[in-house]
Amino acid sequence: MKFEIPIGPQHPALKEPISLRMTVEGEVIRDADIRLGYNHRGLEKLAEEKTWIQNIYLTERICGICSHSHTSCYVQGVEKLMELAPPRRGLYIRYLISELERVHSHLLWLGVAGHEAGFDSFFMYTWRDREVVMDLLEMISGNRVHYAMNAIGGVRRDLDDAQRQKILDGVAVLRKRTEYYFHIGANEPSFVGRLAGVGRLTKERAVALCAVGPTARASGVARDVRKDDPYAVYDEIDFELCTADTCDVLGRTVVRIKELMESYKIIEFIVRNLPAGEIAVRAPRKAKPNEAVSRYEAPRGENIHYIKSNGSDKPERLKVRAPTLANYPATVEMLRNGFIADIPLIFAAIDPCICCAERSVELIDARSGEERTVRMSDLRRLAAARRRASGLKGKAEWPF
Amino acid sequence: MAVLRTFLYLLVYPGLLFLFVYGTFCEWFDRKIYARLQNRMGPTHTGRFGLLQPVADFFKLLAKEDIVPERADKTLFSLLPVFGIAIVGAAGLLLPVWNFDLAVPGPTSFPGDIIVLLYLLSLPTLVFFLAGWASTNFFSIIGGTRVLTMLFGYEVPLFLAVLSPAVLAGSWRLAEIAAFYQARPLLVLPNLVGFVVALIAVQAKLERTPFDIPHAETEIVGGTFTEYSGKKLALFRLMIDIEMVVSAGLLATVFLGGFPGGALLGFASFVVKTLFIIFLLSLIRAMTSRIRVDQVVLFAWKYLAPLAVAQLLAVILIKGLRS
Amino acid sequence: MKVAVFMPELLRHLFRKPATVDYPFRKLEVPKDFRGTPYLRPELCIACRACERDCPAEAIEITTVDEAEKRFRMVIHNDRCVHCAQCVESCPTTPKAMQMDALFELADYDRHNLKKDWVFIRAVIKPKAAEPKPVPPQAGS
Fold it and tell me: Do B38 and C13 touch (CB under 8 A)?
């Protein structure tokens, strides 16, 4: 007998609102339906109303944990549009922050996986050690989240020698702790019993469903933008692409811990070999008509930004494809034939950043329940017609 | 006069008020130890060292709005917390702290009272199941079925483990079992395996990690307690605290040799021994992660039940050798 | 199968100081260059409106109080501010008229209490002595 149970939009397992409607039979899930849209903020439209500089901060706020990924991906794209070449020191500092953010995000994920599995002590310890990397980021950039280090043409702040030494000390501490967590994660029987064999995604299905990031790498798919399409400094740095073969949540945990160790290597390389020079070049206020696609390896997978300019100081179009959106079809596949008890772990294993992924719109007729897909061009036509009819000028009025 | 004494006995000491105070103290101790094991502070600010935090939680819940779902069975829904408190309160009266002298036994010490205590401790599981069932919420029903599924796992090892020292002592009366082990303290050692099995089974009965599946927060919201709020939830949480005190008291009596020394010293020994057992339970809680309900049953029948049976056989052997 | 892998670490921490801090009775220090809230040093401001133009949250508002006297009014809406410090960076004066302080405990019951304003007369740009700037490396190196 099949039931349909809703997980979300409000549920303790989810950090953000999303609706997963599961069709279950006993304790086994037969089907899952993902409904997005609870966190939609109209960011892509808002980006068209703000200048290139203001958009750096807007894209940062697409997400909190992968904030630097979005702003770096955007700035990389704008630098391609404006045909700027940022100085090497600036690039090194920008990707140092990227790797520190990757460390922060993976330690956060380890804690969240522990909490979803009920292993609260592991959660507390990994988050305590996350404070080391957050203090480093606060020292470098002035804030613990939303680092605002990027400027178009480079970075805004420089590193001095005392800060470099502190980064190396912090990374040494974190390396020891990460090895300890690897030992715990692999050997604590109750924890491994929850993670092993859960959320299976075979290699063929991972490729067919376009999974990205650690979700795909745990199924043996060796796909990483830093290796496939090295941007900026990554072709100068020696690091390994981490994969696992178990195709389940335990594999994803192992991939993330291995990526942590690789990130420590990259951070140490960058800090030791920081080239001298300027940190930014001057960027023009307006961009010539052009379009650019920029790819970036966020902690969750491949992040793609498409930017189009039309000669003014504001972008014509900004389209964001966050990695979590690419992992949703794979999640539906993983949830089938799993247990209800495993739902939080399977969903947490893709490291969902739901607010990043709120970029697709689904229209449902309230009366008949029928779903329709509307093209973006139709939506724009309707919006432009409405704006002309209402007579609003330029900037909207602040209500306060 | 006797009527007044009985009322004081039931309501103040060792009845409801004492169980309330001591239950909240034990919850504070559990939370503080759990926090310190995780390198954090635990309750700090309410009262000195945060001692009043569980009391504050209780009173806060009493003041909240009490909602009964529309389709729920109202009488059953509202009476279950009261039943729960009554059950664990009655179980609390059976502990041999208040029967210090075997020559003058109190009204609550009689042959077979260990069986009554174990029976009274199984009833809360039924109360939880009925609470989940009466809520008519899908998450509560799943929680209720998980409670009963776990019962199939841990109940048999718990009974076997707790009854082994009773078999060795040759009595079904808690005060006599305690007196037996006080006179021969070395005989506590053969029961160690049973002690470990009973600790794990009690952790499952109290629904704490690794067995907190019925009210697993991240999976089924609140499990059996999803629809409970306000006064009823306050009474359920108090019931769980008192259940912890009673189970710790039972384990201390049967495995650690009871509470000798008369009124004052016996009470002190009660506090020390129950806090020791609660420390061990908190350690188990901090050390492990939650396991799935099918893994609980597998674990219980693969490891706990054979160990409990082995313990019982060892006890019978020793009893034969001693006589 | 190992049991109780985590136990030694847990027991060791039972005797150590907790990692958490008793906020708000004890507070942690913020590092240097922490991005707190922006404030104006009115004696240095030349009212070029670069900060107003570049602010992503429209949190700075500069209005002309008196055209003849060159008196301006700047309002910083701290309830809209996202603490990005772009205003500090866009400010062209040396030393900078917009600065960031280290305050972050701004919570209030009324958003209108968070707005700060200054009324000032525009500063006159002193001609800067020509200082030799380091030649930047060529773009594309």
Answer: yes
| pLDDT bucket at B85, cuts 50 / 70 / 90 | very high
Chain A's closest residue to B139, CA to CA, is A5
Chain A residues touching residue B37 (CB < 8 angstroms) = 121
> Residue B314: inside a domain, yes or no?
yes
Question: CATH code at A55?
Answer: 1.10.645.10
How far A119 CA lies from chain B's nearest CA (Å)?
4
C37 located within any domain: yes
Does residue C136 belong to any structural domain of this protein? Answer: no
The model carries a pTM of 0.88
Q: Which long-range contacts (CB under 8 A, 24 or more apart) does B47-56 make?
A: B51/B25, B53/B28, B54/B24, B54/B25, B54/B27, B54/B28, B54/B241, B55/B24
Judged by a CB distance cut-off of 8 A, whether residue B288 touches chain A is yes
Task: Note down the domain range covering C68.
Answer: 27-121
Nearest to B40 among C6, C7, C18 (CB): C18
User: What token pair was written down for A116?
Assistant: 């979803």
Is A3 among the domain residues?
Answer: no
Place of tokens 């305690």: B178
Contact B41 C22 (CB under 8 A): yes
Establish if C69 belongs to a structural domain. yes
Structural domain tally of chain B? 1
B8 inside domain: no
Residue B291 touches partner A, C-beta closer than 8 Å: yes
Return the SS3 of A118.
coil
**Would you call B36 and C13 a contact, using CB atoms and an 8 Å cutoff?**
yes
pLDDT per residue as tens digits for the range B269-321: 899 999 999 999 999 999 888 888 888 899 999 999 999 999 999 999 998 99
Query: C44 Cβ partners below 8 Å, 6+ apart?
Result: C93, C95, C96, C97, C123
Please write the tens of the pLDDT for every residue from C13-24: 888 888 888 888
**B224 near B131, Cβ under 8 Å?**
yes
pLDDT band for position C27 (50/70/90)? Answer: confident
Which residue in chain A has the smallest CA separation from C90? A53
Tell me how many domains chain A contains: 1
Among B36, B39, B209, B219, pick the best mutation site for testing chain A contact (most A Cβ within 10 A).
B219
Q: Tell me: the pLDDT tens digits for A200-228?
A: 889 998 888 888 899 999 999 888 888 88
Q: Do C56 and A55 touch (CB under 8 A)?
A: yes
Q: Flag whether B258 is in a domain.
A: yes
* Residues B137 and B145: beta-carbon distance below 8 Å: no
Q: Taking CB atoms and an 8 Å cut-off, how many pairs form between chains A and C?
A: 76
* A397: closest chain C residue by CA: C58
Minimal CA–CA distance to C5: which of A257, B286, B32? B286
Residue A31 resides in a domain: no
The CATH number that applies at residue C38 is: 3.30.70.3270
- Residue C129 domain-assigned? no
Is B267 contained in some domain? yes
Q: Is A397 left (phi over 0), alpha (psi -120 to 50) or beta?
A: beta
Report the number of distinct structural domains present in chain C: 1
Q: Is residue A306 part of a domain?
A: yes
Number of H helices, E strands in chain C: 3, 5
- Give chain A positions within 8 Å (CB) of B219: 13, 340-341, 343-344
Q: Residue B282: which domain range?
A: 13-322
Within-domain flag for A346: no
CA A47 remoteness from chain centre: 19
Interchain contact A2–B (C-beta under 8 A): no
Q: Quick check: ipTM above 0.85?
A: yes
